[in-house]
Specification:
131 residues; alpha/beta; Hypothetical Protein Ychn, Chain: A
Length: 131
């Protein structure tokens, strides 16, 4: 069994972010090697400004109170924890080019690469997940 977990983050809402970082931090805390490939709207999850304004799905606003009562960390806090646990963040170069973004638009410590970069990492990962 592989000691690697590969995650693709291609959507950028609040629930998507919680799914991505919940799995990533749990795997990393379990001594797995973890990489997340952020592409298209998924780049919002590591964007310095956008990560503070991720949208709650329509009709799910009541979850905000639940997150607060359960003392669930916010997304910027989870990004920080993931980084501290050694989770590798790979930002999609093609998507960044399309959107006119640079490495400086994102949290510290990201790697910029293309699909081939991620596929090389993921080729022997198990599981491989997409959100």
């Amino acid at each position: 069994m592989s000691n690697k977990v590969a995650i693709i983050a291609s959507t950028g809402g609040l629930f998507d972010a919680y799914k991505v970082f919940n799995i990533a931090t749990a795997a990393a805390a379990s001594e797995k090697e973890v990489a997340i490939f952020f592409t298209f709207e998924g780049l919002n999850l590591i964007h310095k400004q956008a990560m503070y304004n991720l949208e709650m799905p329509a009709g799910k606003e009541h979850f905000a109170e639940g997150f607060e009562k359960a003392q669930v960390p916010n997304i910027p806090q989870l990004v920080e924890v993931a980084g501290e646990l050694g989770v590798k963040f790979i930002a999609c170069q093609m998507t960044m080019d399309i959107m006119g973004l640079s490495k400086e638009d994102f949290v510290t410590g990201i790697e910029v690469g293309g699909a081939v970069t991620f596929l090389e990492y993921a080729k022997d990962a198990s599981p491989a997940l997409t959100f």
